[in-house]
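Minutes, project check-in
Item: structure for the 353-residue chain
Input as provided by the requester:
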Amino acid sequence: MFFNPYTVKTTRKDKVMKKNKKESLILGRILQKIAPRIGARVILEPEWEIVGQITFKTGRRSYFRYNTLDLNPVGASDIAKDKDYANFFMKAMSYPIVPGSKTFFSDEWAKAIGSPRRNIDAAYRHARKLKFPVIVKPNSGSQGTAVSLVHNKHEFYRAVRVVFKSDRIVLVQQLVHGKDYRLVVLDKKIISAYERIPLNVIGDGNSSIGKLLETKRRQFVASSRDTQIRMSDPRIKMKLAHQGLTFRSVPAKGQKLYLLDNANLSTGGDSVDVTDKVHPAFRKLAIKITRDMGLRLCGVDLMVEGNISQKPNEFWVLEVNAAPGLDHYARMGRAQEKIVEALYLEVLKHIER
């Protein structure tokens, strides 16, 4: 029997996951709204609202679950979900992945697959070899969950143990610098591109960082943006500490402070649309990566030194996403929701073909 040490099977019951996701996913609602424009209709399972059926005017049916639509091949999608496997194939095809990327296992999983020495201690030795600070992240995670920039042994072990609460495999990577971009590709076309900016606050000269962050959290709630800013997130406290700050610190007027190192919209990051500014070489690159990874719809995440509008110089492929959900982008405002509706309408047309 073939045994895949990188396959991660969740230990949580589906119903718990569905319940947690119910209020955060808007794909079903958007599809129900836009499908009639092309003569299609959508049935959304009403209890959990995470799976649905699309019936096109030809009678052909298609299905979706969470943000996964019937567009990408199953094998290619599964590879994309596993960061280490995706890195292996991209490196084999000469794409520049993040240097020093290597996976390690929880004690239980390491023993189960016969690799007891590839545990948290081996991961720490690898981090020392790369030299701190390093990036620690779940191998199969998404939305920036449990992604940390760590600077020393104490932070490293704490971050890895957090990863092991939800994933049996941790990815340790060298830190790379630049601007974080996501390019969304659909069948040889860039349909969306945006710069992702980490959670931040801007000082007014009077308010503490804690107060500024609370104000931002309330603004998200008021705008119906489904983003969870947890004041208790240890990564925020750690980020502040490395800047010599606390929640009580009062930044100067106009001073911009970053509170997380990952730029995911789901953790409070901002986005700047750059769809019309992407350099032709980056467009070609993202389309080629999508095709080479066997995908039709793909979110290609890049770290770029310089600007996406300039000819590529130094850059790295952070990861590829076969189900690039646009929920958090859509919830940033009415204008963004209109953009997402147009994008998903284009996706529906491609599924119908």
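Outcome recorded: Residues 14-67+327-352 form one domain.
No further action items on this chain.
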